[in-house]
Amino acid sequence: MSDSNDRESKTAWKPAHRIARRQFLKATALAAGGLLAAPAVLRHIEVAQAADRTEISFASAKFFGKSTVAQVVEAFNQSQGKILVKYDELPPPSASTEVHQGLVQRLAKKDGTPDVFTQDVVWIAEFAGAGWALPLDEYVSADEAGQYFPGVLAACRWNGKLTALPWFVDSGMLYYRTDLLKEIGAGVPETWDQLVAAAQALMKAGKAKIGFSWQAKQAEVLICDLVEFVTSNGGAILGPDGKTVEITKPAAVEAVQFMYDTIAKHKISPPDVRSWDEEPSRAPFTGGDAAFLRNWSYVHPIAEDPKSSSIAGKVGVAPLPHFAKGKSAACLGGYQYGVNAATKNRDAAIEFLKWLSSPETQLRFAVELGLAPSRPGVFDSAELGKAQPFMQTLKPVFVGATARPVTPKYAQVTLALQSAVSKAVTHGNVAEALGEARRKLEQIVA
Q1: Angstrom distance (rounded) from CA 104 to CA 114
Q2: Are 195 and 258 in contact (CB under 8 A)?
Q3: Does the keyword Signal apply (predicted)?
Q4: What are the strands of the beta sheet with 165-166, ordered from one edge?
Q5: Contacts 24+ apart (CB under 8 A), 72-81
Q6: Are strands 401-402 and 210-213 parallel, antiparallel or unpaired?
Q7: Backbone φ, ψ for residue 401 (5° rounding)
Q8: Cα-based angle 299, 155, 190 (whole degrees, multiple of 5)
Q9: Where are the beta strands (DSSP E) in 296-334?
């Protein structure tokens, strides 16, 4: 929070503090006279303190590390005396469908709860399109907005309005074996052709059982990978208007063909990738069997932990490769904040929202929960460099983060794409599968 906000918080806190102090002294005196038992004194004080505050609710997926989201919320409650936040814990992001359903059920009631919530970046358009998310432009200045990664901020807009505020960012990245590349005298691949050549060379030399591990399971992660392959070839899934379907254009078809070819033609990826999501694809890499891996930032601490990895000290991270005429693209992940459009406590919700997204709180989430800041400036802090040195190196990766298709119909779009792309990478009928996807998408986004 800024100094001015700190002063405002302290000023607003004093009356509640004085009232609570008087109530405490009164209750203590009564207890000393035998009129109240000690537990009753404490309950009386807690009720009085809560009555002096504006109570709001905060629903979030469960994240944890050295601290939990609940502990961060409690830190806010302890920092001031105006607002009391009640935490509504949802399942972890790995149970994305359940988190989404939980939020939809709550927000659809339009009863004002939860006042503030966290949301996967791909739900922003859906919640805004349904009228559940409060537009935030009047509360966020242009200067404040400019302090976030442009790609993340763009993903927080719907129909030109800012309907979410950035929390943390994640994206796909390339993990590679530094020792193996050194042994064959190869550099870190910048193009997909270079990755294929290095992977084949390492497999032929018997230095790696798997050249390239990635995720082709019919699940959300398949669409994340799809975005990276297609965008790195200069293609797109939907046009900027969210309604023009571009999945059958040459750049997209060529990219999906390459996804299939990693398995069937180049043979650098095993057929098993068709059933792998994040963890099954991670295991061969940290187990020492794979030369390259596409995955998220969570893999790094696992890969560098000798207790869970056989390649600790031999791991490098780089932006994902691109096609000859394209540039690296990393699928944007992460959760962002929103305010319920029906909240009955707008001022309190906005104050809590801005505290959550402040540089200080983002730094705490980064240091204690390993959630990468959505503010480039926070990446440069000495404290982050000391606590999370690897995270600090990811800034160039996040700058190029690319959003999945932005549409309020995303839940339907992703299911149609998952089905079609899964068929394409399984049977190799790329043009036919993407043609089927185009027809379904045109009906969905019309």
Answers
A1: 11
A2: no
A3: yes
A4: 83-90, 54-61, 116-120, 335-339, 165-166
A5: 72/361, 72/364, 72/365, 72/368, 75/364, 76/352, 76/355, 76/356, 79/9, 80/9, 80/10, 80/12, 80/13, 81/12, 81/13, 81/16, 81/17, 81/20, 81/49, 81/52, 81/53
A6: unpaired
A7: -65, 140
A8: 50
A9: 315-318, 330-333
Write the single-letter amino acid at 14. Answer: K
Report the CATH number of the 57-169+334-400 domain: 3.40.190.10
DSSP state at residue 371? P
> Which pLDDT value is given to residue 50?
59
- pLDDT tens-digit series, residues 66-115: 889 999 999 999 999 999 999 999 998 878 889 999 999 999 999 999 99
CATH class of 171-332+409-445: alpha beta
Which secondary structure element, helix H or strand E, spans residue 400, and what is its range?
Answer: none
**Positions in the chain whose pLDDT score sits under 70:** 1-51
Judged by DSSP in three states, 130 sits in: coil
Token pair belonging to 340: 């319920």
Residue 441: exposure state from Cβ atoms within 10 A (0-12, 13-18, ≥19): buried
Pair 126, 157: CB distance under 8 Å:
no
What does the alpha-carbon distance between residue 226 and residue 232 come to, in Å, rounded to a whole number? 10
Q: What is the pLDDT of residues 223-276, one digit of tens each?
A: 999 999 999 999 999 998 889 999 999 999 999 999 999 999 999 999 999 999
The reported pLDDT for the residue numbered 134 is 98
Q: What is the pTM of this model?
A: 0.78
